[in-house]
Design a protein that fits this description.
By secondary structure, the protein is of the alpha/beta class. Helices cover about 40% and strands about 20% of the residues.
Length: about 220
Amino acid sequence: MNPVPIKKTASEKSAALGVTNRKAIDSQRWEQDFSPLSQTQPVSQIDAVEPVGQIDSANAERGRLIILIDGSNLFYAALQLGIEIDYANLLNYLSTGGRLIRALFYTGVDPDNDKQQGFLNWMGHNGYRVVTKKTTQLADGSKKGNLDVEIAVDMMRLAHCCDTVILVSGDGDFAYAVQNLLYQGVRVEVVGLRSMTSLSLINAADHYIDLGSLKQCIQRL
């Protein structure tokens, strides 16, 4: 027996249309206020990068795309892989198949580290919006700058203006935020080194990409 289509009343149709229109208006406002990278950062270098790999067919149409990178997690993943990351190639690869709205890079900073400041300046001029927090020194002498809260808040804040979020991190603390994005109809992809990526985060996402499989594409030569 074929299912009987459920007809919506005029008021239900009007309400649904109102929600759709509000989401479209919100998206337009966000893109005017926080428009794609070209208004805030030069991206000519990114445009010139040749494609370095192919995404799988499941990701062929990503639509409007937000990329959030946990800088500390990616740094230690690169150490495990024994490579330096080519961030131009990384951005080029991750944005394939979508219209990039924003690429956000989160990291703790040491104001006295000139080399780090030079790197972050380069990132800011090559397609990334850099979000920083001053590191604090721990009792053992190490320094820490945790931006998990900032990443989670931005994921929720930007959900209305994108179709796909790519989270570059293996931190299981983001699993709940990822689940909330799914409830809002946003596709979520997680990119992280398998040995450093929480199973709860992998299971929460629509799609998982092992950073190790991208080694040849994203390493700095």
